[in-house]
Amino acid sequence: MDTDVIIAGAGPTGLMLAAELRLAGVRPLVLERQPQRRDTPKAGGLGGPILQLLCCRGLLERFEAACAPTNSMSISAADTRWSG
Ligand SMILES: Cc1cc2nc3c(=O)[nH]c(=O)nc-3n(C[C@H](O)[C@H](O)[C@H](O)COP(=O)(O)OP(=O)(O)OC[C@H]3O[C@@H](n4cnc5c(N)ncnc54)[C@H](O)[C@@H]3O)c2cc1C
After folding, report:
1. Are 49 and 75 contained in the same domain?
2. Rounded to whole angstroms, how far apart are CA atoms 48 and 77?
3. Which domain holds residue 71?
4. Which atom of ligand 1 is nearest to the CA of 34?
5. Does 38 fall in a domain?
6. How far is the CA of 41 from the centre of ligand 1 (A)?
7. Given this model, what pLDDT does residue 44 score?
8. pLDDT tens track for 19-74
9. Cys-Cys link to 84, which of 11, 56, 65, 77 (CB 3.0-4.6 A)?
Protein backbone atom coordinates (compact mmCIF):
# COMPACT_ATOMS: atom_id res chain seq x y z
CA MET A 1 0.00 0.00 0.00
CA ASP A 2 1.43 3.39 -1.00
CA THR A 3 0.97 5.39 2.17
CA ASP A 4 3.23 7.96 3.75
CA VAL A 5 1.20 8.70 6.85
CA ILE A 6 -1.42 6.75 8.77
CA ILE A 7 -3.99 8.86 10.61
CA ALA A 8 -6.04 7.27 13.39
CA GLY A 9 -9.54 8.71 13.40
CA ALA A 10 -11.81 10.18 10.75
CA GLY A 11 -13.10 13.04 12.86
CA PRO A 12 -12.74 16.65 11.72
CA THR A 13 -9.10 16.74 12.82
CA GLY A 14 -8.09 13.56 11.03
CA LEU A 15 -9.97 14.38 7.84
CA MET A 16 -8.68 17.96 7.68
CA LEU A 17 -5.15 16.75 8.33
CA ALA A 18 -5.51 14.18 5.57
CA ALA A 19 -6.74 16.85 3.16
CA GLU A 20 -3.88 19.19 4.05
CA LEU A 21 -1.31 16.42 3.68
CA ARG A 22 -2.74 15.45 0.30
CA LEU A 23 -2.46 19.06 -0.88
CA ALA A 24 1.20 18.89 0.15
CA GLY A 25 1.75 15.76 -1.92
CA VAL A 26 1.75 13.37 1.00
CA ARG A 27 -0.28 10.16 0.76
CA PRO A 28 -2.32 9.70 3.94
CA LEU A 29 -4.40 6.72 4.99
CA VAL A 30 -7.20 7.46 7.45
CA LEU A 31 -8.30 4.60 9.70
CA GLU A 32 -11.57 4.92 11.62
CA ARG A 33 -12.56 2.44 14.31
CA GLN A 34 -16.28 3.20 14.17
CA PRO A 35 -17.85 1.18 11.34
CA GLN A 36 -20.73 3.62 10.87
CA ARG A 37 -21.43 7.33 10.98
CA ARG A 38 -22.94 8.64 14.22
CA ASP A 39 -26.69 9.22 14.32
CA THR A 40 -26.28 12.54 16.09
CA PRO A 41 -24.05 15.43 15.01
CA LYS A 42 -21.10 16.50 17.14
CA ALA A 43 -21.42 20.13 16.13
CA GLY A 44 -24.31 22.52 15.81
CA GLY A 45 -22.16 25.46 14.83
CA LEU A 46 -18.75 26.67 13.76
CA GLY A 47 -16.76 29.56 15.16
CA GLY A 48 -13.28 30.81 15.89
CA PRO A 49 -10.09 29.83 14.06
CA ILE A 50 -11.77 27.06 12.05
CA LEU A 51 -13.55 29.77 10.07
CA GLN A 52 -10.18 31.26 9.08
CA LEU A 53 -8.91 27.86 8.01
CA LEU A 54 -12.01 27.15 5.94
CA CYS A 55 -11.76 30.60 4.36
CA CYS A 56 -8.09 30.11 3.46
CA ARG A 57 -8.99 26.87 1.70
CA GLY A 58 -11.93 28.41 -0.14
CA LEU A 59 -14.40 26.24 1.75
CA LEU A 60 -16.20 28.74 3.97
CA GLU A 61 -18.79 29.75 1.38
CA ARG A 62 -19.78 26.12 0.88
CA PHE A 63 -20.29 25.74 4.62
CA GLU A 64 -22.30 28.96 4.71
CA ALA A 65 -24.46 27.71 1.87
CA ALA A 66 -25.07 24.49 3.77
CA CYS A 67 -26.21 26.58 6.75
CA ALA A 68 -29.33 27.80 5.01
CA PRO A 69 -32.13 28.99 7.32
CA THR A 70 -33.75 25.57 7.10
CA ASN A 71 -30.61 23.95 8.46
CA SER A 72 -29.94 23.84 12.21
CA MET A 73 -26.20 24.44 11.73
CA SER A 74 -24.89 27.92 12.44
CA ILE A 75 -21.69 29.83 11.69
CA SER A 76 -20.72 32.64 14.01
CA ALA A 77 -18.87 35.68 12.71
CA ALA A 78 -19.79 34.48 9.23
CA ASP A 79 -19.66 38.02 7.94
CA THR A 80 -15.94 38.18 8.69
CA ARG A 81 -13.58 37.54 5.80
CA TRP A 82 -9.94 36.54 5.84
CA SER A 83 -7.46 36.44 3.03
CA GLY A 84 -5.66 33.17 2.47
C1 LIG B 1 -22.70 16.60 21.48
C2 LIG B 1 -21.54 17.43 20.94
C3 LIG B 1 -21.80 18.68 20.39
C4 LIG B 1 -20.75 19.46 19.90
N5 LIG B 1 -21.04 20.68 19.35
C6 LIG B 1 -20.05 21.41 18.77
C7 LIG B 1 -20.34 22.64 18.09
O8 LIG B 1 -21.47 23.09 18.01
N9 LIG B 1 -19.30 23.32 17.51
C10 LIG B 1 -18.02 22.84 17.56
O11 LIG B 1 -17.13 23.49 16.99
N12 LIG B 1 -17.73 21.69 18.20
C13 LIG B 1 -18.69 20.96 18.80
N14 LIG B 1 -18.39 19.79 19.46
C15 LIG B 1 -16.98 19.40 19.54
C16 LIG B 1 -16.54 18.77 18.26
O17 LIG B 1 -17.38 17.69 17.90
C18 LIG B 1 -15.11 18.28 18.46
O19 LIG B 1 -14.29 19.39 18.75
C20 LIG B 1 -14.60 17.57 17.25
O21 LIG B 1 -15.40 16.45 16.92
C22 LIG B 1 -13.17 17.11 17.52
O23 LIG B 1 -12.72 16.49 16.34
P24 LIG B 1 -11.60 15.43 16.41
O25 LIG B 1 -11.38 14.94 15.00
O26 LIG B 1 -10.41 15.97 17.12
O27 LIG B 1 -12.13 14.24 17.35
P28 LIG B 1 -13.42 13.33 17.13
O29 LIG B 1 -14.53 14.03 16.47
O30 LIG B 1 -13.66 12.70 18.47
O31 LIG B 1 -12.93 12.22 16.12
C32 LIG B 1 -12.00 11.25 16.50
C33 LIG B 1 -12.28 10.01 15.67
O34 LIG B 1 -11.21 9.08 15.87
C35 LIG B 1 -11.73 7.80 16.03
N36 LIG B 1 -10.72 7.07 16.76
C37 LIG B 1 -10.31 7.29 18.04
N38 LIG B 1 -9.32 6.45 18.35
C39 LIG B 1 -9.10 5.69 17.24
C40 LIG B 1 -8.19 4.64 16.96
N41 LIG B 1 -7.30 4.20 17.88
N42 LIG B 1 -8.23 4.08 15.73
C43 LIG B 1 -9.11 4.51 14.80
N44 LIG B 1 -10.01 5.51 15.01
C45 LIG B 1 -9.99 6.08 16.24
C46 LIG B 1 -13.04 7.99 16.76
O47 LIG B 1 -13.92 6.92 16.53
C48 LIG B 1 -13.55 9.28 16.10
O49 LIG B 1 -14.35 9.03 14.96
C50 LIG B 1 -19.40 18.98 19.97
C51 LIG B 1 -19.15 17.72 20.53
C52 LIG B 1 -20.19 16.93 21.00
C53 LIG B 1 -19.89 15.55 21.57
Report:
1. yes
2. 8
3. 44-84
4. 47
5. no
6. 10
7. 82
8. 999 999 999 999 999 999 889 988 888 888 989 999 999 999 998 888 776 666 77
9. 56
